[in-house]
């Protein structure tokens, strides 16, 4: 069931966020979302679900500025739970804490809850339906946005107490605001090697490897030509792409350079930037 987030696929490993108040964010990410602290140094913390694997990094820049509207960057990062009953427990917990939800949707391939952290960084918490039930037509997967069957979901979770995120929780996908889709598609598909699995009108693109419903979502809902946010504004710092091998990473770097994308090495880490200024760390 969870094979889409391991080799030979390319998937999102870790998301690095900038926040305005580290302590406030830590309280939120532990008490509301259910992460554990893996490591904390100065104004930066690494968060985990299993006590070993970092999934989220949050840091407080020197003089952070609030999130600006209509810029590129994070739309949401998405936490994938191992089981539908885990999603039910999360929903029950959110209803009990009274933390405001922004939405609850059935996407056919998955069921999802939406909320935002105290800085307005978007978060999706979801569980996948069995991939054998996903409907594919001409290489595209069918996804819709319908109201979530909240009653049915809560019934599923009866008796399952929320403690924290389950150990098998993964970073399921990331969804980004971009300034246009043509160059963006070239960058992610020709450069990074993703496949397009769904197009939403001319406004959004969903891409994956290995037949997942999406490892990355890309949309122009912040406006065509949206500028990138200020360096110290809260939001996405970068996200990490896990490539299946060192050879795969070398190949991707070559492909990126072939389309004129910049790849830089910094202390043994490789970084690239999509045409909208979203930074990506390439790991193998």
Automatic annotation (TrEMBL):
Residues 11-128, 170-284 form the VOC domain. Coiled coil: none annotated. The keyword Lipoprotein does not apply. GO terms for molecular function: lactoylglutathione lyase activity; metal ion binding. It holds the Pfam family Glyoxalase. Keywords: Metal-binding. The keyword Metal-binding applies. PANTHER family: CATECHOL-2,3-DIOXYGENASE (PTHR43279:SF1). This is VOC domain-containing protein. It comes from Heyndrickxia sporothermodurans.
């Amino acid at each position: 069931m969870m094979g889409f987030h391991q080799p030979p696929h390319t998937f999102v490993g870790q998301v690095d966020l900038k926040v305005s108040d580290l302590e406030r964010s830590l309280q939120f990410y532990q008490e509301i979302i259910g992460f554990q602290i893996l490591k904390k140094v100065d104004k930066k913390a690494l968060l985990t679900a299993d006590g070993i694997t970092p999934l989220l990094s949050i840091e407080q820049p020197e003089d952070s500025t609030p999130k600006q509207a209509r810029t590129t960057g994070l739309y949401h990062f998405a936490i994938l739970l191992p089981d539908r009953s885990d999603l039910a427990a999360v929903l029950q917990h959110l209803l009990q804490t009274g933390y405001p939800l922004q939405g609850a949707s059935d996407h056919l391939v998955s069921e999802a809850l939406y909320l935002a952290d105290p800085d307005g960084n978007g978060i999706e918490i979801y569980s996948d339906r069995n991939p054998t039930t996903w409907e594919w037509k001409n290489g595209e997967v069918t996804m819709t946005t319908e109201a979530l069957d909240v009653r049915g979901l809560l019934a599923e979770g009866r008796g399952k107490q929320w403690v924290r995120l389950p150990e098998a929780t993964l970073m399921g996908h990331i969804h980004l605001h971009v300034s246009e889709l043509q160059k963006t598609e070239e960058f992610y598909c020709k450069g990074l090697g993703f496949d397009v699995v769904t197009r939403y009108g001319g406004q959004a693109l969903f891409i994956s490897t290995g037949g997942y419903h999406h490892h990355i979502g890309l949309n122009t809902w912040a406006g065509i030509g949206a500028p990138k946010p200020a360096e110290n504004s809260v939001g996405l710092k970068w996200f990490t792409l896990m490539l299946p091998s060192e050879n795969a990473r070398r190949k991707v770097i070559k492909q990126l350079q072939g389309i004129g994308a910049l790849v830089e090495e910094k202390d043994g880490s490789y970084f690239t930037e999509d045409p909208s200024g979203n930074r990506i760390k390439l790991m193998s």
